[in-house]
Amino acid sequence: MTNDPKQNEAGDGKSHPDHTHEEINGYCATYIFKAPRMLDNDGVKDFARELMKAIAEACMRHGATDVGHIKAHIEYGGEGFLYADTLGDAADIMVRGRDGSPTDTIKLVINTIIVDIEAPQIRDANEEGVDEVCSRLGFTKEILKQDLYDADDHEHLLQAPDYDNL
Amino acid sequence: MKIVQIAGYLGSGKTTLVIALGKEISGAGYKVAILVNEVGEVPVDGKVIQEFGLTVKDIGGGCICCQVAGNLLHTLKALSMGVKPDFIIIEPTGMAVPNAVRDVMKPAAGKLDLTMGPTIVLLDTGRFEKLLSYETLKRLVSVQLKDADVIALSKVDSVSAEQRLKAEAAAHEINPAARVIGLSTFTKEGVPEVIAAMKDMVIA
User: Fold this and answer.
1) Given 3.30.70.360, 3.10.20.590, 3.90.1200.10, 3.40.190.10, which CATH number is that of A23-150?
2) Which of B1, B9, B10, B158 should be substituted to probe chain A, the one whose Cβ sees the most A Cβ atoms within 10 Å?
3) Range of the domain at B121
4) Which residues pair with B168 in a beta bridge?
5) Is B11 in Cβ contact with A88 (below 8 Å)?
């Protein structure tokens, strides 16, 4: 296989249509939230809905054309988990999962992909939304991990993978 | 080992379909492995799929059609030497170009004893008009649909018959060669047809 950086992975020398998603960027993060009181399942679900709504609204304020998706995986109260997501104009927020025990601690992983705003703005909008909800509901947040996704990094014109050593 | 790709734009219902397919196929006695590629280093979909007891390999840190193409091949190699599933279901990111993902795998098919199954691309019947109206997204959604062997019109339970017909017409217009299936993971409409396509279709 060639090492020519103008070759694509298949080594056929064609350029992949990278231009298709140049305006789609993202941010993902893992948080630990502490609630001011013990929450039951409905309380955790309400918190998740509030977060998704606030983040979506903040992204639109920052100039987003479309919410590609905002999705979250939430662990709480032993075996409890929730999957929350929204897309488009964020009018509908889906939250479903498995019930857990009452808790004041929530681990939440969120992935926010937005059209037409840059990754740092998505991060800022995400954190604005999170901070607004935490402030209003009396939660504290700790960020364990975060990562920005910039479509400019989505580079199709790379050297081919090493098929010879498979 | 047969590879099936479940592709489509963000929010089209890929993860929900992958869970439904994984449960149905493994319930019928087949071994299934699911490869999930997500944007960024912090996976969500893989965690959710795992909650349903399915075997999942997360490939993060970039797109499997470019930045982490090598990781995809190494994961396929590990599966071929270990679990040897009957089906490998690949869920790329909502921004991936399906044929670019296929291009990465094709040269490895012979070495790893892989059969290339269909690329199934989901189109959200409730959102397709809006997506195709954005210049930014129109190209991506159209390219994804053009790469499909099967177009699954998702969420048909939540739209009118008229809207469904419009989506079907748009899908046919963009890719006249693809098989078009109405899909609802809620009512299960179309799930047997998708499974039949997974089993029957082999792509040269």
Assistant:
1) 3.30.70.360
2) B10
3) 2-200
4) none
5) yes
A131 to chain B, minimum CA–CA distance in Å? 20
Distance of CA B33 to the CA centre of its chain: 13
Mutate which: B66, B91, B132, B142, vs A, most A CBs within 10 A: B66
State how far residue B3 is from chain A, nearest Cα, in angstroms. Answer: 17
Whole-model pTM: value is: 0.87
Residue B86 sits in a domain whose CATH number is 3.40.50.300
Instruction: Please give the full DSSP string across A120-145, using - where no structure is assigned.
Output: HHHHHHHHHHHHHHHHHHT-EEEEEE
CA B189, B190, B192, B193: dihedral to nearest 10 degrees? 160
Among the partner-chain residues B66, B67, B140, the one whose CB lies closest to the CB of A20 is B140
Q: Do A97 and B47 touch (CB under 8 A)?
A: no
Work out how many domains chain B is built from and give that number. 1
Which of B70, B134, B143 faces A66 most closely, judged by CB atoms? B134
Amino acid symbol at B114 = L
Instruction: Render each residue's pLDDT in chain A as its tens digit; 166 residues.
Output: 333 333 443 344 344 444 455 578 899 999 999 999 999 999 999 999 999 999 999 999 998 888 888 999 999 999 999 999 998 766 789 999 999 999 999 999 999 998 889 999 999 999 999 999 999 999 999 999 998 988 766 555 455 677 777 7
Write the ipTM: 0.82
If 0-12 CB within 10 Å is exposed, 13-18 middle and 19+ buried, where does residue A65 land?
Answer: middle
Place of tokens 């492995």: B33
Q: What size, in residues, is chain B?
A: 204
Whether A9 sits inside 8 A of B103 (CB atoms) is: yes
In this structure, which amino acid lies at residue B101?
V
The identity of residue A43, as a single letter, is G
Whole-angstrom distance, CA of residue A49 vs CA of residue A11:
46
Q: How many angstroms away from the CA of A61 is the closest CA of chain B? A: 18
Give the phi and the psi of residue A158 in degrees, each rounded to 5: -115, 170
